[in-house]
Amino acid sequence: MEINVNPRKVAVAFLSVATTLAVINAILLFFYFYLDDDELYGLIDFFDFDIEGNVPTLYSAVALLFCSSLLALITTANWRRPDGWRFHWLGLTILFFLLAIDEGTAIHEEVGTFLEDYLEATGALYFLWVLPYGIATLVLGLTYLRFVLQLPPDTRMRFVLAGVIFLSGALGVEMLGAWEAGLHGTTTVTYCLLYSVEEMLEMLGVILFMYALLLHLAEVTGRFSLHLERPDRS
Fold this sequence. Notes:
Number of helices: 9
Distance between the termini: 23 Å
Strand content: under 5%
Number of domains: 1
Number of strands: 0
């Protein structure tokens, strides 16, 4: 059996799910603020972008895990090449696997809670987990600079654009939301709009990165194929 994968169709499928989740989130927020229904039969807990361990969280974890799987395939395809970049691909594979775990288990929230014992949560750092994650992002960017520069131009452009979109949400808008939460709490219209934009930017960044990985994998391998064989019964 042979399975062929169309990068555009895969990206559109993930984008359709993300868009649906964003629409549901917006509808629930409308009910929360304008129809005085903060429960809506419990749907808010299942679909709100600012709540951990629900459907949007599961989607994001699956998307990150899918990226990790694609990176693992690229790592395998590049393992015997003498260009010296195989460990960079392996590092990205591990990174996205850890990001998927973090997304699913909210480790970053625990990191923030831990840091509150040592640092003051205020202003843009009201959510303190942003500090170590921001430093780690800077270190990672410097470490991977040469790797990114040696990528094919189209792949490099997609990687950089995906990273900018993702980080503008995960760190940029997140810090704006933290500022708003510190000043006025987490139940204002402004805060809810900010975390909704933040999550959508993260989702879009991951989808674009996924699309870039699929195209790059197609260039490296030529095509995807999966062969299933019967086990030897002898």
